[in-house]
Amino acid sequence: MLNSSVIGAEIKANRDVASLEDAPLNSFHKRLTFYSSAAPFLDGYILSIIGVVMLQMSHALQLTSVQEGLIAASSLIGMFLGGFIGGVVTDKLGRKTLYLLVLVALALFSLGQYWVTSAWQLIGLRLLLGMAIGADHPLATSLLAEFLPRKHRGSLLASLVMMWFVGASAAYIFGEMIMRSAGADAWRVALASAAIPGVIFLMLRAGTPESARWLLSKGRVSEADQVIKKVYGPQYSVRNLHEVTPQKHLSVWSLFHSGYGKRIYFVSMFWTCAIVPVFAIYSFAPRILAAFDLTGDRASWGSVAITVIFAIGCLVALKLINPMGRRKLLIHSFLWSGLSLLLLGIFPNSSALVTLLLFGGYALFIGGAQVLEYVYPNELFPTEVRGSAVGLATSLSRIGAAMGTYLVPISLNSIGIGNTMLAAFGVSMVGMVVAILMAPETRSLDLQQAASLRKS
Asked: What are the alphabetically sorted keywords of the record (predicted)?
């Protein structure tokens, strides 16, 4: 076993050795990418299943429009709390500590929805569900980012976002099957069904190692060396990590000042603008499509079709993230998806085909902004505060998303579908302006270079 102090000293001296940032992608990276997709998959599933069950659930619990909005928004409020708390904890105690516990909590809270008897019970459980999902976002993405080689980091982190739409698609497909076959309590079964993928991901994650970068940031050099040899092979060591020592006295409060404060503002703003229209559409897809005179099976399968196009948009963005670059992809994503929302707002009485095509256009083009939600926050902050930064950005973005989701049923009833789409267009334009003014380009940088304030 190499002595920790010797290794620590030699890390500084061995800058000419090969970097792990340039190591080949291996089976561990691929498995870890899939395991880390639990948060976005379950996020998409749990949020979207509400749209499927809303009509039956509203009738069974005699919900008001305000209660409907609170139920849809409660998981987002929970993500606000869980994201920040989970990020701070994962930076303090390690990525591995919460990696399993959050999925245990998620499975239990999902099952609990089956027995609710009031709106407030459901709001409380979905608040707790959101906290579990919110906590998983920073710890899973930070762990993954700290293992991935530079060449594949952007595309594999971005692929996690696509799993949100896979989860949403699964919610609509299995939700519709349950609603058609489970009788009067079908909505209860559909809500509780999120426990099944939660348990599957829980079993898959067992045995995942701690982040070598996090261990090194805490001075645990020998443990970091063991992890590197296990993941990459005996020919590698911490000498190949090229991450020297913890940056001086970085804490969660570093995220509120200097260059990191500007980065948190950028990430939180573009993330908020990317998800507000998406979350609102998914939470109330059948109702929104009904406002465009698409009802019954047309609304149900229209929701599925739009979700599939969302996934296709993310897949296209994965192919563009390196050749096009992060900055250009973000700007163009907001521009063209926003124009689709503008046309929906200007022409709310269009035919069913035109309406679905415009929704499809939004779903296709917003993929660029969506896939960058995990890439930018993990690249722009150092190991010592990476989890806290991702958690804080997750939390701040959910404030706007929760408000937007809560206001959708009220907006539909008060100002109509056309003006609601125009408001969503305005949100997208804010995102585009923020991207033009603040988005950096990080595609050619290694993780330490991208996180350095000197690269701002």
From this structure: Membrane, Transmembrane, Transmembrane helix, Transport
Domain CATH number, residue 139: 1.20.1250.20
SS (H, E, C) the chain: CCCHHHHHHHHHHCCCCCCHHHCCCCHHHHHHHHHHCHHHHHHHHHHHHHHHHHHHHHHHHCCCHHHHHHHHHHHHHHHHHHHHHHHHHHHHHCCCHHHHHHHHHHHHHHHHHHHCCCHHHHHHHHHHHHHHHHHHHHHHHHHHHCCCCHHHHHHHHHHHHHHHHHHHHHHHHHHHHHHHHCHHHHHHHHHHCCHHHHHHHHHHHCCCCCCHHHHHHCCCHHHHHHHHHHHHCCCCCHHHCCCCCCCCCCCHHHHHCHHHHHHHHHHHHHHHHHHHHHHHHHHCHHHHHHHCCCCCHHHHHHHHHHHHHHHHHHHHHHHHCCCCCHHHHHHHHHHHHHHHHHHHHHCCCCCHHHHHHHHHHHHHHCHHHHHHHHHHHHHCCCHHHHHHHHHHHHHHHHHHHHHHHHHHHHHHHHCHHHHHHHHHHHHHHHHHHHHHHHCCCCCCCCHHHHHCHHHC
Number of domains in the chain: 1
> How crowded is residue 30: how many other Cβ atoms within 10 Å of its Cβ?
12
110 in any annotated domain = yes
Measure the CA–CA gap between 49 and 59, rounded to whole angstroms. 16
Are 257 and 249 spatial neighbours (Cβ–Cβ below 8 Å)?
no
Report CA Rg, the chain.
22
Name the pTM for this structure: 0.76
- On whether residue 2 sits in a domain, the answer given is no
Residue of 84 and 455 predicted with greater confidence? 84
- The answer to whether position 44 is within a domain reads yes
How confident is the model over 189-209, as a mean pLDDT? 92
Per-residue model confidence as pLDDT tens digits over 116-154: 999 999 999 999 998 998 888 888 888 898 899 888 888
Please check whether residue 5 lies inside any domain of the structure.
no
Residues 301 and 286: their CA atoms lie apart, in Å, by 9
- Its domain, for residue 20, covers 11-455
CA 300/CA 290 separation, integer angstroms: 10
Mean pLDDT value of segment 312-334: 92
Q: Is the pLDDT of residue 296 over 70?
A: no
